[in-house]
Amino acid sequence: MSDTSVIEISEGAVADNLSFLQKQFGSGVRISSVVKANAYGHGVETFVPIAERAGVDHFSVFSACEARELLNIVSSGTRLMITGWMNDEDLKWAVENEIEFFVFDPERLKRLISLSEKCRKPARIHIEMETGMNRTGMHLNELKEAAGIILNNPSCFVLKGLCTHLAGAESIANHVRIQKQLSRYVKLCKWFSDRGLVPRYRHVSSSAAAMTYPSARFNMVRIGILQYGYWPSAETFIHFISKKKEKNDPLKRVIGWKSQVMAIKKVKRGEFVSYGTVYLAQEDKTTAIVPVGYSYGYSRSLSNQGRVLINGQRVAVIGMVNMNMLIIDVTKIPDVKKGDEVVLIGNQGDLTISVASFSEFSNQLNYELLTRLPKGTPRTVVD
Ligand SMILES: *Cc1c(COP(=O)(O)O)cnc(C)c1O
Fold this sequence. Notes:
Layout (H helix, E strand, L loop, with lengths): L5 E5 H15 L4 E5 L1 H5 L3 H10 L4 E4 L2 H8 L7 E4 L5 H9 L3 E4 L2 H14 L3 E6 L11 H13 L4 E7 L11 H20 L6 E3 L3 H6 L7 E4 L10 H8 L13 E6 L2 E5 L17 E6 L16 E4 L2 E4 L9 E4 L11 E8 L2 E3 L11 H7 L7 E4 L1
Parallel strand pairs: 1-18, 2-3, 2-9, 3-4, 4-5, 5-6, 6-7, 7-8
Antiparallel strand pairs: 1-10, 10-16, 11-12, 12-15, 13-14, 13-16, 16-17
Helix pairs in contact: 1-3, 5-6
The structure holds pyridoxal-5'-phosphate (PLP).
């Protein structure tokens, strides 16, 4: 049985992106490859081995469930880090399996003392500090308590990291806030080291900060979107490119998404196409039906808006995107046949459909569209 669409992952693009990033950050900065949300829709089972072959040996995920899945995929020397959700039962599993994780309340450290003794292994912790994002992260009074617990139980903990998360480094509008966060972070790190608590890693940066604020790299960066070939925002890209002679984008898109024509239709002038009255044929039309809809991650907001590639040309999505199908206007394309390749994202001939081109409204769209690509769609590796 063949699926209605296929996602292609380019191994060469991943390797090029990671080597560009490592060069950019310098060899003293370890990259933790962020593969939450099914590797931003690229598919962990497909993406992670490719990233490992490109030299990555540290991965970050949001939840313990994601870490559990990853543990079956990675090779033995590779480290995993949970930056978000785990329940108390997951804690024991994480300690046993030497998974690193963020800690953002002192209660958790207390619980870890007995767990660590039971497992006869230390907990590998990253202390998350509140510096201005006001999300997770411990305030100073909690950090004092945490430091006390760690100092009193040295065999129960390995202090893998002191970390925080920056609140929007992808936009210059947040510059002052980011600078404040960075200076608070540095002060808090000093407070810890004054008490003899020196972490293996200091990390605050996701993609945007790692590119825009070199002083925010410390000795680890948590890189998600860049490694997949996308800039976190247009501003981040412009900031980067403005300092370069070469004005080419050094990143390569990793993902391609393809389907095919399942049926071809003639539509008479004056008829509506698909549900409702969203699209009226102003002239006689030839349309092609493609077996991809919003349940496959092709958003309904692309109704009458999307573009796809077919036979080397760019054509429009017309009418509503359905749950399982969309309709394209192929009136101007000669010899369209059932089975012809339809590119939803990626290249065909000289043309490209980029994820960003889906909308210029929001720089979050890259992230959102990618992470909505369903797990069930097959991924294949290409050069
Ligand atoms: C998702 C996430 C990142 C990666 O963000 P990108 O913008 O994709 O690089 C880094 N750190 C944390 C804590 C995250 O949740």
